[in-house]
Design brief:
The chain has 242 residues and is of the alpha/beta class. It is 38% helix and 17% strand. A hairpin with a 2-residue loop joins strand 1 and strand 2.
Length: 242
Amino acid sequence: MFKYKNIKINYKDFGAKDKSPIVYLHGWGQNIAMMEPIAKPFTDTHRLVILDLPGFGDSEEPETAWTLDDYVLMLKSLLEHLNIAKPSLIGHSFGGKISLLYASKYPVNRLILLSSPYKVKIKKPSLKMRILKKLKKIPGMSNLANKMKNHIGSTDYKNASPLMRDILVKHVNTDLTEAAKKIKCPTFIIWGDKDEAVPVSDAYELENLIPDSGLTVYNGCTHYAYLERLNQTNSIIKSFIK
């Protein structure tokens, strides 16, 4: 366990400790186990670090509603604790967004983004959301509006604690378009063309934003494309991170 700002963070540090390090960051609502299938094959060739991001797995929730920058600072502190100066980062979804922001600020050897959101989605409010907004304006109806919000929000939102819901809202409303342009390390992007959480069109846009980047789209795969084509993903990691 690593302690950062009074919260305990669970992580695994294994593999070849004298080899180049790879750090894995999982997606929202996930944990270490989701990244192990793309880490364990490299036990003999790399130092491997996987963590439960604060608020997930066996790591404690932050004491306040963290921003993405707070998650980046936590990661920086953990890597300094482990004496890792220039890691390769592999992040899925929410973990990919943290990895992207980290790589825009600090030295990174290689970056692999797996179905990683980077911009704010512009959505037309649904009928239910429009009703909810009107209810909030009516005196005495705020409690009913809050109850409705719990029922019509996304699955991630409904499953989260009140604090983690605040963090999720901050994450969703953080745009990293400018940060992506600042990434200097070689970057590889993996996406599924059937991804309903983050559309594949975002993958092509992200490839254009990051100066030294490449993209592979897995046909017929979803937001978890990296696991659905596990052998292909591990082959890419092996060849890309040398």
